[in-house]
Amino acid sequence: MLNQNNKIKIALIGDSLSKGGAEKVHAILSIYLEKQGLDVHNCIFVDAVSYEFSGSLLNIGKIKVNSSSIIRKIYRFRALQKWVTSNQFDCLIDFRMRPSFFLEFILSQIIYPKNTMYTVHSGVLEFYFPKNIFLSKLIYYNQKIIAVSNAVQNEIRERYLLKNVKTIYNPIDFERITYSKDFEIVEGSYVLAVGTMDNSIKQFDKLIMAYSKSELPKQNIKMILLGDGKNLIKYQKLAEGLNLSKLVLFLGVVQNPFPYYKNAIYSVLSSKNEGFPNAILESLACKTPVVTFDCFTGPSEIITSYLNGILVENQNFDELVDAMNLMISDKELYRQCKDNSSKTVEKFSVEIIGKKWLEIIVS
After folding, report:
1. CB within 8 A of 225, min separation 6: which ones?
2. Model's pTM, two decimal places?
3. Residue 67 confidence (pLDDT)
4. Judgement on whether residues 276 and 127 belong to the same structural domain of the protein
5. pLDDT digits (tens, 9 = 90+) for 232-277
6. Among 171, 129, 177, which Cα is nearest to 21's?
7. Which of 20, 58, 63, 143 would give a disulfide with 43, using CB separation of 3.0 to 4.6 Å?
8. Both 342 and 355 in a single domain?
């Protein structure tokens, strides 16, 4: 615990505090850092809060101005500038996606304090860096960059020639993963997939097709999908067209997904790309194995095939079907993966990962 009379004042800035993986890490880290005696302050750009967090909150997404979007952005920018300037933070961690060179250049050069860290939570680096190497260096050359996986770290170094890059994995807060072993979510057995339906990255349409070709429907093993977004209706119609309406269940966004993880046979990840997927971490923490593509990036740094799940050749949906079948047909393999699942992610506990953040904050 740090000296309560001389607290480090830290700012955590994110897109929101809802739904996403980076947003969840932001929330978990705010709680951990406050427990360690830091003076925690949060700022979000989008008015969306569903995760529990600690510290004060500046929600500039709530700033509504009956004018053009440009005027609204100016008001929000001024609110952020005033907040950063008046608080004189010792450290700032930015969890946002950062696609706009102009905005990020101003923030990095004028607004943010010297001790600022920029996180990168996806293997799609264009979400965070300008494509042009020169422009990227203008913003980030002397900045601290925290990558969510070793693969992301290496890609940043090789593509943008940036050296000050460090990997800190997403944390799991085991204490907050609460579930009941006797709580039955749905009648019968099921496998689980979790994620946003706002874009095509999770590829739920292709996953539903893979499920239809597997042995699972024949054995009356359902597929539960947690999440929502603009593609939901399209996915529902696909399931209806495959006569799977009673087997593919869309349950939306739930506040506590852990009972769903706990009671699933296994979970499935069929993404085009990832950063360091919380869905895999949370599933394993709930003692549920995972079948996942070896996509860029993250799964290969969590899953060891036939130890805590199955890594499938990236984007090979035929192999994904085979792996989904194998996990229900090979009882010994399944037992081994289930027995090993939780212990393989103990190294990602918030106590261990939080200490890594604390070390870099105070350094």
Report:
1. 193, 194, 204, 235, 248, 249, 250, 251
2. 0.93
3. 67
4. no
5. 999 999 999 999 999 999 999 988 899 999 999 999 999 999 999 9
6. 171
7. 58
8. no
193 and 114 in a common domain? no
Output helix, strand, coil percentages for the chain, rounded to the nearest 5.
Answer: 45, 20, 40
Q: Which two tokens stand for residue 32?
A: 């951990």
Q: Which residues pair with 124 in a beta bridge?
A: none
Q: How many domains does the chain have?
A: 2
Same domain, 75 and 214: no
Distance CA 273, CA 278 (A): 13
CATH assignment of the domain containing 61: 3.40.50.2000
Q: Which domain holds residue 249?
A: 175-346
SS3 (DSSP) at 202? coil
Closest C-alpha to 118, from 85, 150, 96: 96
**Is residue 14 domain-shared with residue 162, that is, in the same domain?**
yes
Rg of the chain in Å (alpha carbons): 21
pLDDT digits (tens, 9 = 90+) for 278-293: 999 999 999 999 999 9
Instruction: Give the rounded distance of the alpha carbon of 136 from its chain centre.
Output: 24
CB 178 within 8 A of CB 256: yes
Closest CA to 26 of 1, 3, 46: 46
Alpha-carbon distance 214 to 294, whole Å? 20
340/292 same-domain check? yes
The C-alpha atoms of residue 8 and residue 6 are separated, in whole angstroms, by 7
Same domain, yes or no, for 356 and 320? no
As a residue count, the chain comes to 363
- Angle (CA) 198 266 228, round 5°: 15
